[in-house]
Amino acid sequence: MKRIGLLSDTHGTLLPRVVAFFDSCDEIWHAGDIGNMKTLEKLELYKPVIAVFGNIDDTKVRSACSETAIFKCEDLLVAMIHIGGYPGRYTQQSRKLIFENRPGLFISGHSHILKVIYDKQHELLHINPGAAGTSGIHQVITAVRFVVEKKQIKDLEILELKRKSQV
Which element (helix H / strand E) includes 117? Predict the structure, then answer.
C-alpha cells in the first residue's frame, strides 16, 4: 500500500497548506508546470517525487523531468503527462500513450480544473488534480491524495483552498 500526493500547475509556488496535505503520503507526483527547479527541489527534499514537465517549464526543469512518465505503483500501471485532455477529449499524444501502455490510472494537468473521471472505454481512472499554485485562471487551489493498494485506487481526498485567501 502506498499513499500518494498528486498536484499540478504549481507555477513556482509551493504553499505550506498544500505541502502539509501531503504529510501522510509516501510519494508526491507532479503533473507538470512545476515553475522552477527550486519548487521541484523543495518537493524532493520532502518526499520522493515523480514529475513530468509542463509547457511553462524552463530547460532546467525539462532536463530534470521527462514529458511523460509511465511507471508502476504497487501493481497499478500509471501514465502521466501535462497536457493530456480527459475522457472523450484526449490529446493525440495521450491517446497514443493510453493505447500503447493500457494504464489503470491516467494523470494530466494543464487545465487548472480538478477532474476525477472513470473512463469506461479505456478501463482507467483519469485524474487531473487542478492547480496547486497561485498563478492562472483558477479560483480554487486544489490537490489530491489517495491510496494505491495492488491495482486498486481508494480513499481519494481533495484539498480545496480559496485562492484569494492564499495570495
Answer: strand 114-119
Q: The C-alpha cell of 20 is what?
A: 502539509
Exposed e or buried b per residue across 36-72, where buried means at least 16 C-beta atoms within 10 angstroms of its C-beta: bbebbeebeeebebbbbbbebbeeebeebbeebbeee
What whole-number distance in Å separates Cα of residue 142 and Cα of residue 131? 6
Strands (E), 120-167: 124-129, 140-149, 152-162
Q: pTM above 0.85?
A: yes
57 alpha carbon, distance to own chain's centre: 15
Out of 3.30.300.30, 3.60.21.10, 1.10.533.10, 3.40.50.1980, which CATH number does the structure's domain 2-166 have? 3.60.21.10
Q: Which phi and psi angles does 163 have, rounded to 5°?
A: -60, -40
Instruction: Write down the residue that cell numbers 510519494 correspond to.
Output: 27
- Which of the four pLDDT bands, split at 50, 70 and 90, describes residue 167? low
Task: Measure the CA–CA gap between 144 and 65, rounded to whole angstroms.
Answer: 21
Q: Are 109 and 9 in contact (CB under 8 A)?
A: yes
Angle at 62 between CA 61 and CA 66, to 5 degrees: 120
pLDDT tens digit sequence for 149-162: 999 999 999 999 98
